Amino acid sequence: MADKHGDFVWYELMTPDPDAAQAFYGDMLCWQFEEAGFNGQDYRSFSAGDAQIGGILKLTPPMIEHGGQPSWVGYIRVDDVPETVGKVRDAGGHVFMEGGEVPDVGPFAMLADPQGAPFYVIDDRSGQPSHAFSKHEPKVGTCAWNELITADPDAADAFYTTQFGWTKGDAMEMGPMGTYQMYEHGDYGLGAIMQKPDEIPASLWAFYFRAPDIDEALEKATAGGAQIVNGPMEIPGGDHVFQGVDPQGALFSIIGSKGA
Q1: Where is the VOC domain (predicted)?
Q2: How far apart, in whole angstroms, are the C-alpha atoms of residue 13 and residue 70?
Q3: What pTM was computed for the model?
Q4: Residue whose C-alpha is closest to residue 3's, from 148, 146, 123, 182
Q5: How far is it, in rounded angstroms, from Cα 57 to Cα 64?
Q6: SS (H, E, C) the chain
Q7: How many beta carbons lie within 10 A of that of residue 112, not counting itself?
Q8: Residue among 56, 21, 23, 24 nearest 41 (CA)
Q9: How many CA atoms lie within 13 A of 171 on its CB side?
Q10: Tens digit of pLDDT per residue, the chain (260 long)?
Q11: CB atoms within 10 A of CB 120
């Protein structure tokens, strides 16, 4: 099925050490890697079986000098990149980069919502549907959930529903942490928006990638040098999740089932 405006279609890790990141994530999530650099950049794509998931971009010293830091950023499919850039700017968002073009794919831009959470938009003209996000059936290695942790959930709701056509789904009350508001896009659950806790310094997106077994993933993450900051904990539906900071400093999120 063709991707539509508002779908997450690609996930990118920006890191100062792609080799270390590849070793850390590859075994834990059953990813295979392939060199895909262009314009002299160190860029490698990764996949789970025949599903292309995303890429790893090396943060160079000039990128770091201009504020780049280890992080995961998602790409959202849009029908018209320049039009979306204009609407985001008018809505109080930020434009970090525009006018870019991915060879054989299409134009893209790097933006941020009004609270500062970064994301990409891309007009994928390749004709190949994305399988990076599991819309209906769980698949190891793909993203299972997109979660925005933000300083202003109400403002974020207004921004994303207007820009990308997402609609509110179920919600869970989490006491002092406020409401965990879930969102749908067409016929599938896309993710959620929640209040940012004080210990997280900035608004950001978290992407939950599916591991074969949550306990094995936790062991591999810990052995690989990650700092576990939350979980593992059970979530509705029976899966378990945990979050950590990888050895290069990027926040990551893992979802999976417990082995028998």
Answers
A1: 7-124, 142-257
A2: 7
A3: 0.95
A4: 123
A5: 12
A6: CCCCCCCEEEEEEEECCHHHHHHHHHHHHCCEEEECCCCCCCEEEEEECCEEEEEEEECCHHHHHCCCCCEEEEEEECCCHHHHHHHHHHCCCEEEEEEEEECCCEEEEEEECCCCCEEEEECCCCCCCCCCECCCCCCCCCEEEEEEEECCHHHHHHHHHHHHCCEEEEEEECHHHCEEEEEEECCEEEEEEEECCCCCCCCEEEEEEECCCHHHHHHHHHHCCCEEEEEEEECCCCCEEEEEECCCCCEEEEEECCCC
A7: 18
A8: 56
A9: 14
A10: 679 999 999 999 999 999 999 999 999 999 999 987 666 788 999 999 989 999 999 998 888 887 889 999 999 999 999 999 999 999 999 999 998 888 889 999 999 999 999 999 999 998 899 999 999 888 999 999 999 999 999 999 999 999 999 999 999 998 888 899 999 999 999 999 999 998 888 999 999 999 999 999 999 999 999 999 998 999 988 999 999 999 999 999 999 998 75
A11: 23
Type of residue at 220: K
- Written as six digits, the tokens of 107 are 């134009």
Question: What does the alpha-carbon distance between residue 258 and residue 260 come to, in Å, rounded to a whole number?
Answer: 7
Homologous superfamily of 8-122: 2,3-Dihydroxybiphenyl 1,2-Dioxygenase, domain 1 (3.10.180.10)
Count Cα neighbours of 245 within 13 Å in the Cβ-side half-sphere. 7
Closest-CA residue to 7 (of 260, 212, 189, 254):
189
Q: What b-and-e string marks burial along 97-109, b requiring 16 or more CB atoms within 10 Å of the CB? A: ebeeebeeebbbb
Tokens for 210? 């599916």
Domain boundary assignment for the chain:
8-122
